[in-house]
Amino acid sequence: MKSPDLKPQTSRSGYRPGAWGLVLGVLLAPWLQGAEPTVSFQKDIAPILADKCLTCHQEKKAKGGYRVDTFEHVTKAGDSELAPLTARKPDASTLFTRLVTADEDERMPANDDPLPPEQVALVKRWIEQGSKFDGSDARLALNEVISAASGKTSAKPRRSIPGHYPSRRR
After folding, report:
1. 41-94 tens-digit pLDDT
2. Which has the higher per-residue pLDDT, 158 or 6?
3. In angstroms, rounded to a whole number, what is the distance separating the alpha carbons of residues 145 and 151?
4. Is the pLDDT higher at 17 or at 112?
5. Whose CA is closest to 46, among 111, 112, 97, 119?
6. Contact of 135 with 42, CB cutoff 8 Å
7. Assign residue 138 a region: left if phi > 0, alpha if psi is -120 to 50, beta otherwise?
8. Residue from 2, 3, 20 nearest 11 by CA
9. Contact by Cβ (8 Å): 70, 161
């Protein structure tokens, strides 16, 4: 008795119809499951830090010894020595807990209204997603990181670290 031919079916072009379904399923799975879109440090977080935190936490004036003028500094603890970011754990990240605390003496931004809930949610999601840097150089000043994200370049690059000059893209 001869066994039946169990060859996979293919279309005229040689592709298996099931393969395209598998590829589409893998690509669409996060969207179909309602996964949150990836939060970008460049596009989402850096503008918040530049607008609400940079005045008090920069190179010349770093309250509490904490700086946010570059991503590299955002990740380093200030005088408290508490971790500003603990990947995937907002409640263990001082950067986040200082935004949401009910204690007005501890809440950031100091002497200002709390961040809008949408911005707090973005920071939380960014940390939950691993608090990753999606720029080209973690030592670039926030304004350069933001400019790079928008495709704009400034006429005069700003040095954020002594001896470090941001490279220009061609």
Report:
1. 999 999 999 999 999 999 999 999 999 999 999 999 999 999 999 999 999 999
2. 6
3. 10
4. 112
5. 119
6. yes
7. alpha
8. 20
9. yes
Q: Which two tokens stand for residue 82?
A: 């508490």
Distance CA 77, CA 66 (A): 6
- In this prediction the pTM is 0.71
**Measuring CA to CA, how many Å separate 48 from each of 17, 41, 98, 112?**
46, 10, 14, 14
Residue 12: alpha-carbon gap to chain centroid: 45
Q: Residue 62 — φ and ψ, nearest 5°?
A: -115, 85
Distances (CA, A) of 53 to 36, 42, 117: 25, 15, 16
CA distances from 154 to 120, 143, 150 (A): 29, 9, 11
Tokens of 134: 């999606």
Around Cβ 70, how many Cβ atoms within 10 Å? 25
Place of tokens 């830090």: 49
Nearest to 137 by CA among 115, 116, 164: 164
Mean pLDDT of all residues belonging to the chain: 83
How far apart (Å, rounded) are the C-alpha atoms in residues 96 and 106?
Answer: 12
